[in-house]
Design brief:
227 residues; mainly alpha; 11 helices; flat
């Protein structure tokens, strides 16, 4: 997001605190305490200024979050995308994934209704790349939206599960927590995996699975449109 849309049309004394300082302080709060704890009042206290000064730059908490998301996208989403449609889709999805993985709280915010549609150009270029890539591959525009939605759900889900699982370690005999109390004599495949499960589950297979997922989505869509 370029400029500060929320401050347009305001009059009076110019604010002494810059937008960059406000966003940097907001990011400190999020990194330290979580995005749920971010409020305009708390941000003002962090900076040692009045809330009125903050409102020169943001309309409200939601606007603040949108500005933070767009700033992050501007800083992390600038890949050169391939011309070939399928590879363009994969590259755009990987760029989205890596951007969100660098700041996982953003994935949580973007699962809230209304936020995805308010993103700036940097983020929307990646959405455009996926949709255009699907259309260029032979999907209808409607199918292309479904392709993006499926990739988006997979990507956000992968990041959130990995983030919330990070740092957890199986206790006792090495079984993951969700095996605890199970009669593994009736679950032979899981019993055979044993304490390999945590290491296998921790592997980063996003790109490999993404390629298979994209291939399946495109094949399903183009088969459906073939007479």
């Amino acid at each position: 997001m370029s400029g500060t849309e929320s401050s347009r049309g305001r009059t009076g004394r110019p604010p002494l605190t810059s937008r960059e300082q406000i966003l940097a302080a907001a990011r400190r709060i999020i990194d330290r305490d979580g995005w749920e704890k971010l409020t305009v009042r708390r941000l003002a206290a962090e900076l040692g200024i009045g809330a009125t000064t903050v409102y020169h730059h943001v309309r409200d908490r939601e606007d603040l979050l949108i500005q933070l998301l767009n700033q992050h996208a501007d800083q992390t989403l600038s890949p050169d995308l391939p011309a070939e449609p399928r590879e363009r889709i994969v590259a755009a999805a990987v760029a989205i994934h890596d951007s969100l993985a660098a700041w996982p709280w953003a994935a949580e915010v973007l699962t809230t209704d209304g936020f995805l549609g308010r993103l700036g150009e940097s983020a929307l270029r990646m959405v455009e790349a996926v949709v255009a890539g699907a259309v260029d591959h032979g999907c209808t525009p409607e199918q292309a939206v479904h392709v993006f939605r499926a990739i988006w759900y997979y990507t956000v889900g992968e990041i959130l599960v990995r983030t919330h699982s990070e740092g957890r370690r199986p206790a006792g005999d090495g079984r993951p927590a969700f095996f605890a109390g199970a009669d593994l004599s009736r679950l032979p495949r899981l019993a055979a995996l044993g304490d390999q499960w945590p290491a296998l589950a921790a592997r980063d297979t996003y790109r490999e699975a993404l390629r298979a997922f994209v291939d399946g989505l495109l094949a399903q869509a183009t088969t459906a449109t073939t007479p």
